[in-house]
Write the structure tokens for this entry.
Amino acid sequence: MKKLISAALVVTMLAGSLVGCSKSAENTGSSAASEVAIEATSESTDSEAATKEATKEAVAWKVGLIDPGPYNATSGPLFAQLELTINALNGTFTYVTMESNSAEATINAVKNLIAADVDAIILSNQALKYGCMAEVADLCEESEVYWSMFWTKIVEGEPNYEACMNKKYFVSTTFEDDVESAYFCTSTLGKLGVKNICEIGFPSGNTTGDMRDAGINKALDEFGMKLLAAERDETVTRSAEGGAIAGSRFLSSYPEMDGIVVAGMSQYVLSGLVETLKSQKKGIDDIQVAAIDFHEFQKEYLEEGYLDAIIGGHIEGPTYSAILIANRINGTSLSEEPMLIQDNFIKLSSKEEAERWDEYVAEDGYIYSPEEIANCLVVNNPDFNLEVFQKMIDDYSLEDIVARR
Amino acid sequence: MKNKTVLSASNICKSFGPTKALQSFNFELEEGEVRGLIGENGSGKSTFSSILSGLLESDTGEIYLEDKPYKVASSREAAAKGIAMIVQEIGTIDQVSVASNLFINREQIFTKLGCINHQKMQIAAKEALEKIGADYIDPQLRTELLNLEERKLIEIARAMYFNPKILIIDETSNALSTKGRQVLYQSIKSVKERGGSVLFITHDLEELITVCDSVTIMRDGKYIETLFKEDMQIKKLRELMVGREIADNFYRTDFDSSYSDEVIFQAKHISSVDLNDISLALHQGEILGIGGLAECGMHELGRVLFGLDKPDSGEVIIRNNTQINNPRKAIANGIGYLSKNRDTEAIIIKFSVKDNICLPTLKKMSKYTFIPPQREKELSSKWSEELSIKMRSDEQLCNQLSGGNKQKVVLAKWMGNDSKILIMDCPTRGIDIGVKENIYKLMMQFKKEGRSVIMISEELPELIGMSDRMIILKDGAAVCEINRSPSVTEHQIIQYMI
Amino acid sequence: MSGFLVEKQKGEGLVSAAQYEKSRRLRMLFLDIFPFIGLIFVLIFFGIVTKGGIYSWYNVKSVFSQSFLFIIGGLGVSFLLAQGSFDLSMASVIALSAILGARIAPFNTALGVFVTIGVATLIGLLNGLIYSEFNLNTWIHGLAINFMFGGLLYTAMGKVSNVPVVKSLTNLNNPINEVAILIIVSIIVIFVFNYTVFGKHCKAIGGGVKASEQSGVNVKRVKMIAFVISGFIAGIVAVLSMIRNGAASDGTGNMFHFNVMVCMVLGGVPVTGGTAVKLRGIFIGAITVTIITIGMVSWGISARAQELVKGILFVAILVITTKIRNSVDHI
Amino acid sequence: MPEDNMGQECGIAALLDIRGGFRMRSKQQIKAFIAGTLYFIMIPAATYLIFVCLRPASFLNYNSIRLIFEQSIYVCILAWGMIFSMKAGDNDLSLGAERILGCIIGILIAKEIKSFVGIPIGCIGVGIIVGGLKAFTNSAIKMTSIIFRIAYTLILSSAGAIIAGNKSLTLSSKYTILGKAPWCYVFFIVLGITLLVVEKYSVFSAHCKVLSGNEKLAKDSGISKEKTTAIAIMISSAYCAISGVIACSFGAGTASSTGLDSFKLVFPAMIAVHVGFALEKHINIVFGVFAGVMITNTISTGLISLGLASELKDTFMGFFLICLMITSVVTARHSEERARREVKAAGKKNIVNT
């Protein structure tokens, strides 16, 4: 009997959720339609109304994106902001899924987007990760599609740099100072007197990962700490369950461990990790944790003391790229050269800061309002230029966000 | 005085394809009677018993159990109605305990709140085993720890536990040693004493006479005769068993069993699980018949001769002193083999006639590994015409052909490979009269062309009718060799077989 | 169209022999042509919904370039398909061999290529041994092997997330070469599959192991060679994907075995093997799948629904064809 | 349904019987029993010992054992569920995707109704529905080819991705009680005993054994394959659901999987079941499976602590599975041959005797 009831319940739930997401799929024209996204677009629609008469001549354009998968505290706000931005810039967007995590799949995704005749493509760091940047560059070049990347650093002298920088249709890539970010986390631990740390991080060799390791090592030397072990298996570090397993493996094989650095992918692993700490009655004062990339429950964790510092909020990059692309398409490009933009992290080390982040970003779902974005089109706002843009990038910080509201 | 009838079956018919296993078979069994059931291979004994125990379903006819119409779908139902059967092959499972083996699909008896009470079950098992006097077997043991005989005893116990009205024993005894047999006879007695009846199927006539009150003889799936205690003599039984009439005789008529003395194929001292120390020599242009009871090892011999099974000792040698130890070698040396399981082993049922015919010859017809399609076409059309195979086109799949045509395809495939020696295992099993005739004709033609045939057959008339020389096997050993002559009769041969 | 066939099956009991034969023929016919129908249907359907958007030279190219590898992979396993089995270990075989190859290529390109193909072939050989000696459940055994070598990938890569491929290889990356290779491989495979002893023996094994053994097929060897071939071609696929992606990583060939399987099913290749295995199925299947993907993207369907649609198509076709096949065979 | 909860008091009965039955057993069996227990204890212990020797500092403490055990729980439950269906010859690889789908829906429900109850509702609900679906299609299509399982996997995982949409699949600690210390143990013990009872005392499992032992015999004695396999599938789904509950509570969330990734979840369980089969002679499969899970988990933990790439555990598992399967095949062949010879031997014996 009980089963019957629960079964019935599930059926309804199932139907409900299906209907739910299909609906949202309709009204954003994409599957990537979280509650946040819905808000964002509803916002954006009236903002468009507001900006429309101002932007008579703003060209309509279409952006291709790769489906980020289920919501998480890092990609969720990022795509929410991005969708809003694109709408505000009088653009539309379409998503594809990658069949698998491979270069092949990335290239196919790009091809399919081009086939869906988009004017621009904004990629995350897939191209970098799977080492197919040159191919993507060629693809976009030959089919005359503008493209940008975020979370992707390309360094002069690398083959990737040559592959992209001399291309006409490569607009920009945005990246963060990852040495700094990792250094921030590790040194925080060091300041708290941690001696033996374990790391959850990217597989070695990944450019971002390497930079973060550099940052960690820097702090290690500085504070005389020791790195006991690192879990880099992506099948583990990409799920909450994995976080829990990694955590308990650390605990079981390194009783002396008193600090954990999550050098990325906190959005997946952190909750699992914290759960394990909780169930082991550890973590509040005997084990310190610092993490890169924001997490849904960072506020609670900071409050309860399981988490001591978290750095992330680097969700503005693609927005900048979108602005650059939009201006190019409108024939008022800010710079003919491809731009390498280093954007800012946001550091949270107290509950209060976390609350402000949640209040201003996670809940409202944007860091730049549609009006602000619309004003970044030269056609709308003739005195918008590279300097203004650069300033906008440099100013990005929690205070800045708060101040602009 | 006449006891009342327990079981009566009237004109039961059952046919598998063209072969009629039972034709309007009538049978009556009296209370407290131990009835033997004998007959040659394929005379329908097992078919009938399987129908009684619900493993098969009869095409027509009624069965009455104590004047109530009797129809069952599974051995479980049969048992519920009071008919239990002990079969030839092993009916136990290794991984579970003796007790659970005793009560397969009867666990419900011991369930309380849906849980089996193993104590109860084991006690019951103990009873069951004591009943047949095999209480030295511990019902808690895993069955794989027991030897074959003990497993058989478990089956007997299983059959006996529910005090069956009728107990059917199908050639069980030859898996039992004396001790086991005692148990078996004991349980037969106890059934009898309880007023139940027993149907006892065996080839061992002495045993039959000692055990049974009466015996029914079957032939070609027909009821022949029922003899009672006093006039049950081995000789008489044998006479009644044989002498099956043939619709119209289309065997070879000549009796010149002439063949060249050149030995082209021979087996030397072959011993294996089923064979012990068999030697035979096949001459050019000879039809060598091999006969015996179904399980006498002749089929296994056929497989060994073709190199499918490896003998434990001894060797098979073809003319030019090459040893045959795998089918490929055999084929390369011009040997062809018609398996008795045609559909699964002799032809590929989902292949077209053409593909089947060409399969063994592919290597020969390929030039530089390339197989010209027209060559395949030629070959298949040549031989399908030669043997007048009935088909729409040679692209037709074999699973749509009749048994006879399938057999023709098999023959075509070996002739296409122009085999010098054919090993035919039950060449006419499940084949309608017409095709049978052509097959016999073909065999003769084969002989005339100076090729040789080894014909393994369960049907005596066929053996007598076709072969130049017969070797009769019993329990895996060659018991006699008979040359072709008009005087040879089934009676002679059956002596050796049983 | 499938609907009406299912109807036909329901009616089986009543129809007379003649009708029956007719309906049987009809089903056989259907089994032969439904992949084409499917392809045409897909073409037309997406043509309509995208208002002719998918009919472009660019799409022709991208259909080719996306189905290219699957076709070659499919041809590689075709001999196993004929035997009614499949090679589920391809994905990590490709990845491993590609990585090793890419690491060696800088010293000597030829050697790199050789190693890539060599490693794959060796693993194929190992598969073959297991398959022919113990014939385990091919699927599980394939998966197990897949795991075995998948686990080695990170170790094989050392300290990088992807191994860049030397210029001398990536320079070969142009459609002409790919077309050339496709044609060569296809011709060879088609020839071997249809016109040689080996090919026929593979089908024979698919039809029945015992029967083929008694007809002089060296079952063990044929099974073995089939796996070696699939390994060899997996190696070729690895080289090709190195050439076109400019890098080898643990992601190389990820899900490859699965995509090939989808192509095979949508191309109407029977799971059971035998003569019913037609190579054209692999081509058509691969193309159909690609067109569906592209079509759905340019139609702007919710991205994740695409997977679901594929899955449902997969099951539906699988069930229908299997059922029809059984109904045809059991006569 | 065999796994009904009135198994409870039968469960106690079972334990009693194990002791009670033990007294009256023959020497042979006491030996067997001891051997079994040793197997059960020794095999995981041996594996553990290896790592103790390698890194005594980290492994020689009660805590690490407990942690390994807690990781093992949900894998073990999954494996337990698979026992019967694998006996009936159906390697259900789609269970991983099924579990993920269950977790996704469970988490969404939990967030909907703001209570951890949502998780079991979701998981079990999905388990029942999907299980029923599988059972139905199984009896409809009459072929349990793995390719169908693969198809299921694809559909289930993509359905999961769609339903998840862009919602977050992370659970806040409020909802993760069921993964925590008391509860997961309760689940473990209850399910363990239930399974023990089902395995030992249910008619269904008896039939299952007959089916796996000798299909013809099963058919002749009127055991319906469809029914049995259907029940087996339902059981595997139910257990899969529970393991889902624990897994997503344990990890405070789940991630939707693409394509065939979810096989990774089923694989350790499958290996465990194979271990169980291998040990079946000596010890009840329920314990055997648990031993298997412990082995795999000890090793993957050990690899980390040795500073080896933890992906190597896949290599190990794959290798392990193949070895297990090969050995089982070989032993099967041997016993077959032995049986054949026995038959004839018996036959020959009686010639001598008569």
Notes: DSSP finds 14 helices and no strands in chain D. The domain at 6-348 of chain D is CATH 1.10.3470.10 (ABC transporter involved in vitamin B12 uptake, BtuC). Chain D has one domain: 6-348.
